[in-house]
């Protein structure tokens, strides 16, 4: 039985869309695309044109529209799509041109086309394109059944580099499918395959097959609504964010309830599943309803207040008003503010203190929608009762990843009692299955408990364990960690122990010492233990910790600006700023265990009693999706918490299958790794075997086999029991590194010659049944690259060299070997070797003299930058000489790429036209020069 071809899949999809009342339009190239756009735009703006006594735009007017649409970045074009354009007509009148009807999303013009040919650097044909009002807003890339879906994603990334331009810059969504697996994602180049999503029904059952996906997702009203309402333009990152299906359904449920009922409700979405984006979109759309006066987003701590405010601001600057104090909250409530963020403490004060409540009498009966964040906390006491009693026409919605049920209720009250029925749920088991959050690796190390849990010996043992374990758990500091302890006094003692051990990692701590020093409360599910009654000078200790922090990072924080200290720790743990040294390990009691969201946090050490919602909230700080290297959140427990962990997982996954959430034990992972490695070695006994592989198919088989080893190796090495020197793993670490070198050699061969080979995105037969080509394979290079091994790290190693020492040659070789082993830096190893030869080998005395100076390292960096600039200039001049092309054209091309990170191939095309070559020779020269320029970019670009 033959496999369904890509062409058959494409024809089937088009037939489905036509049956859903899409108009099929034949568009061959850009000229036809623009002509169709003009016609559809005139249909869509028929009412406005009719008011002027017209049915169409003149050619000059349409040219104005095209010029307006042409300028700007992809993000700015997404904004233009959603705005009206003021067009001054040739006869002196004015018309507001609409490109997308966002309020009545079904009332847009929907078309489908296929095999549209666009010529950029390459001439490409796109599979299936959905046009809305004539603009290509959805691009569908198909692969035949049996082909890895990621290849479709990679092909789209190639399109970004080689052909997307003009009206195709207005694409909002991509859909990729091989018939049996289908995913969608927003138009953000290189955001990663991890950020593609499947579509589901409201019960989280996925529509993976293309026909089922199309039936719902491509319904004209659903697709129109998705593009109009459920793509968020993230102002902070200047990118588009498409809501995932569970977010879409949750917002729709809230909107339906606000419009059709006065009942309350809550959303149960697991921690880490993008609750802030969901709540923002819900608040935004509810605030647009005509009979809603205000939307209040209520959090239960000031740190969450400021965090949510900043996240909302990133989604849409000025969309919400924050409140610094209760007086400000009262002023906002009496203003025209539609969305207000505040804390439950401020809101309670506003309604319960007569001084404030008397000023709110006028709005007591206003239609108020309140959205409560983390509604498993702080909503079971008098504050909540006071708020509900004061506002007579309030409708309440809660968001939580860990609801309060009978099993984990402290005072017998549940989330359902307070907020009513659950409107939508997306549990941790659903999120892990969808790869929207990670599972957990939970390991236990209790240490010596003779004498109890709080003895000095035990705490020293644990501190030493953490310092010894840190590099393994965090991939040599590429990620960072939290250490949650029982109480403030215990934190202070641990901090001093770490300090005495003189760690080579940066350690900080944060806590508040007011009111309840344990930082725990009944609602968090975190017990307080025995330290709560101890008396200690906590304020002085906090200042000592802050002084150490100031010395470490060059800051000047004190207790008077504690909020700024907290925010600084927040930033350093997130590792988002290259100019900011990161904090490697932070000791906490309660802070950062709820609400803190960092993709760079992957490890949590726990010496603290936890259960139910407090436990899962804390664990979930580690399980944000980032890349292939971060495969799970790692938890190391220093207390016997297994029964509590199992109980929490079962409760909040609504399942008895703990293994769906918790990674398998080491022995099970080891057994799988050994079997895979053994099978691999039987097939490829020595690295020299790889040199004998001749055909692309043979090389492909090796790449796929060793890629499996790479993935399993990345997973097993983070287990505490893993020992790379063990002789029972089926493959030694040296064998692994040797095969890895061969793997990377093949990759380099592909990147250097791949663009000269025939690829499926060119005008060759896209629908052939040929095997997968090497340049279509995902090599998973992020698993072979460390963010820590960067230019600064290499400079530190060079600065540490002593050309007069006995071990100089060995240390010099280690630097080059370190680069060769790294997927991204191996191509620069020859460059660094040349730099060391010139600046160390051939200039030993001056190198040592410069080392003595205080600014030695910065001088070294300057010399490296100068050397890179010189060598890059030589490489460019060599290309210009050998290809007989103007060096100015090459420099202009590279300058434009440095600025835009996009190839401006017309620069080279124009330069080649002056040589008057024939068509075939010009094309070959074009490809050859572009390949050489890409090699220059790879070798000489340092970020």
Core attributes:
single chain; 943 residues; alpha/beta; 7-stranded parallel sheet; 6-stranded mixed sheet; 35 helices; 46% helix; globular
Structure overview:
This protein is α/β, with parallel strands linked by helices. Helix content is about 45%, strand content about 15%. The chain is built from 35 helices and 23 strands. The strands form five sheets. The chain has a seven-stranded parallel β-sheet, sandwiched between helices. The chain has a six-stranded mixed β-sheet with strand order 1-4-5-6-7-8, sandwiched between helices. Strand 9 and strand 10 form a beta hairpin. Helix 22 (about 610-620) crosses helix 23 (about 640-655) and helix 29 (about 810-820) packs antiparallel against helix 30. Mean pLDDT is about 90; it is low at about 515-535 and about 755-770.
Shape: globular
Q: State the major sheet.
A: 7 strands, parallel
Distance linking N and C termini = 51 Å
Low-confidence stretches: 515-536, 755-770
Q: Rg, please?
A: 30 Å
Q: What is the typical, i.e. mean, pLDDT?
A: 88
Helical coverage, percent range: 40-55%
Beta percentage is: 5-15%
Beta strands, count: 23
- Content-based structural category: alpha/beta
Quaternary structure type:
single chain
Query: With helices defined by DSSP (H or I, 4 residues minimum), what is the helix count?
Result: 35
Q: Going across the biggest sheet, name each strand in turn.
A: 13-14-12-15-16-11-17
């Amino acid at each position: 039985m033959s496999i369904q071809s890509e062409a058959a899949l494409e024809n089937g999809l088009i037939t489905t869309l036509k049956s859903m009342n899409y108009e099929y339009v034949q568009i061959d190239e850009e000229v036809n695309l623009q002509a169709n756009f003009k016609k559809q735009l005139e249909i869509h703006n028929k009412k406005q044109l009719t008011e002027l006594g017209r049915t169409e735009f003149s050619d000059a007017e349409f040219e104005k529209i095209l010029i307006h649409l042409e300028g700007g970045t992809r993000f700015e074009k997404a904004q233009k799509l959603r705005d009206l354009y003021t067009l001054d007509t040739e006869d002196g009148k004015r018309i507001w041109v609409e490109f997308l009807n966002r309020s009545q999303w079904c009332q847009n013009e929907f078309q489908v086309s296929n095999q549209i040919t666009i010529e950029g650097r390459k001439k490409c044909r796109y599979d299936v394109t959905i046009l809305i009002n004539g603009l290509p807003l959805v691009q569908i890339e198909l692969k035949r059944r049996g082909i890895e879906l990621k290849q479709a994603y990679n092909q789209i990334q190639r399109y970004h580099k080689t052909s997307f331009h003009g009206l195709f810059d207005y694409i909002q969504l991509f859909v990729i499918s091989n018939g049996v697996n289908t995913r969608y994602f927003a138009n953000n180049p290189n955001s990663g395959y991890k950020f593609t999503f499947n579509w589901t029904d409201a019960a989280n059952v996925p529509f993976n097959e293309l026909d089922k996906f199309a039936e719902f997702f491509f319904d004209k009203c659903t697709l129109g609504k998705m593009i109009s309402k459920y793509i968020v333009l993230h102002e902070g990152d200047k990118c588009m964010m498409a809501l995932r299906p569970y977010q879409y359904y949750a917002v729709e449920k809230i909107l339906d309830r606000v419009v059709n009922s006065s009942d309350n409700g809550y959303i149960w979405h697991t921690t880490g599943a993008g609750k802030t984006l969901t709540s923002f979109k819900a608040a935004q759309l509810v605030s647009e309803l005509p009979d809603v006066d205000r939307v209040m987003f209520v959090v239960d701590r000031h740190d969450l207040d400021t965090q949510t405010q900043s996240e909302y601001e990133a989604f849409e600057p000025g969309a919400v008003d924050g409140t610094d104090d209760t007086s400000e909250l009262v002023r906002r409530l009496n203003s025209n503010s539609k969305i207000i963020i505040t804390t439950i403490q401020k809101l309670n004060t506003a309604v319960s203190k007569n001084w404030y409540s008397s000023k709110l009498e006028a709005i007591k009966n206003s239609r108020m929608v309140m959205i409560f964040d983390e509604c498993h906390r702080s909503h079971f006491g008098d504050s909540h009762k006071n708020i509900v009693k004061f506002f007579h026409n309030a409708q309440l919605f809660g968001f939580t990843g860990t609801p309060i049920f009978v099993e984990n209720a402290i005072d017998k009250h549940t989330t359902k009692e307070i907020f009513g029925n659950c409107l939508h749920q997306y549990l941790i088991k659903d999120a892990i299955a969808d790869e929207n959050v990670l599972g957990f690796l939970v390991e236990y190390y209790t240490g010596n408990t003779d004498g109890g849990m709080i003895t000095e010996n035990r705490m020293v043992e644990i501190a030493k364990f953490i310092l010894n374990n840190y590099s393994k758990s965090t991939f040599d500091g590429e990620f960072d960690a939290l250490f949650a302890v029982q109480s403030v006094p215990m934190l202070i003692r641990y901090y001093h122990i770490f300090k005495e051990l003189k760690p080579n990692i940066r350690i900080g701590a944060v806590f508040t010492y007011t009111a309840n020093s344990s930082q725990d409360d009944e609602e968090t599910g975190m017990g307080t233990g025995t330290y709560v009654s101890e008396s200690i000078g906590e304020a002085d200790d906090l200042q000592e910790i802050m002084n150490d922090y100031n010395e470490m990072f060059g800051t000047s924080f004190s207790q008077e600006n504690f909020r700024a200290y907290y925010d600084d720790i927040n930033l350093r743990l997130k590792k988002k700023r290259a100019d900011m040294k990161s904090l490697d390990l932070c000791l906490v009691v309660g802070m950062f265990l709820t609400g803190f969201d960092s993709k760079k946090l992957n490890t949590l050490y726990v010496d603290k009693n936890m259960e139910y919602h407090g436990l899962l909230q804390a664990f979930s700080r580690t399980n944000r999706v980032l890349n292939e290297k971060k495969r799970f959140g790692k938890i190391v427990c220093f207390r016997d918490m297994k029964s509590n962990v199992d109980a929490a997982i079962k409760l909040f996954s609504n399942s008895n299958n703990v293994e769906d959430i918790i990674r398998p034990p080491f022995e099970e992972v080891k057994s799988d790794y050994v079997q895979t490695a053994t099978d691999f070695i039987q097939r490829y006994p020595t690295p020299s075997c790889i040199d004998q592989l001749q055909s692309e198919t043979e090389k492909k088989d090796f790449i796929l086999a060793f890629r499996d080893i790479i993935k399993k190796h990345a997973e097993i090495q983070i287990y505490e029991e893993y020992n790379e020197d063990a002789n029972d793993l089926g493959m030694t670490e040296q064998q692994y590194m040797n095969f890895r070198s061969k793997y990377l050699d093949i990759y380099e061969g592909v990147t250097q010659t791949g663009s000269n080979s025939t690829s499926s995105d060119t005008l060759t037969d896209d629908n052939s049944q040929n095997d997968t080509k090497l340049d279509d394979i995902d090599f998973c290079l992020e698993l072979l690259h460390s963010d820590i091994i960067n230019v600064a790290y290499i400079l530190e190693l060079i600065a540490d060299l002593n050309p007069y020492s006995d071990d100089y040659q060995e240390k010099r070789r280690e630097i080059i070997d370190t680069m060769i082993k790294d997927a991204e830096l191996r191509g620069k190893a020859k460059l660094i070797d040349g730099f060391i030869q010139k600046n160390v080998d051939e200039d030993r005395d001056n190198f040592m003299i410069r080392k003595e100076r205080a600014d030695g390292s910065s001088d070294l960096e300057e010399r490296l930058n100068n050397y890179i600039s010189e060598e890059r200039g030589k490489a460019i001049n060599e290309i210009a000489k050998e290809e007989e092309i103007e060096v100015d054209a090459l420099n202009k091309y590279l300058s434009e790429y440095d600025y835009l990170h996009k190839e401006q191939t017309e620069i080279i095309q124009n330069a080649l036209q002056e040589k008057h070559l024939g068509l075939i020779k010009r094309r070959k020269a074009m490809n050859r020069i572009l390949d050489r320029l890409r090699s220059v970019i790879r070798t000489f670009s340092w970020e």
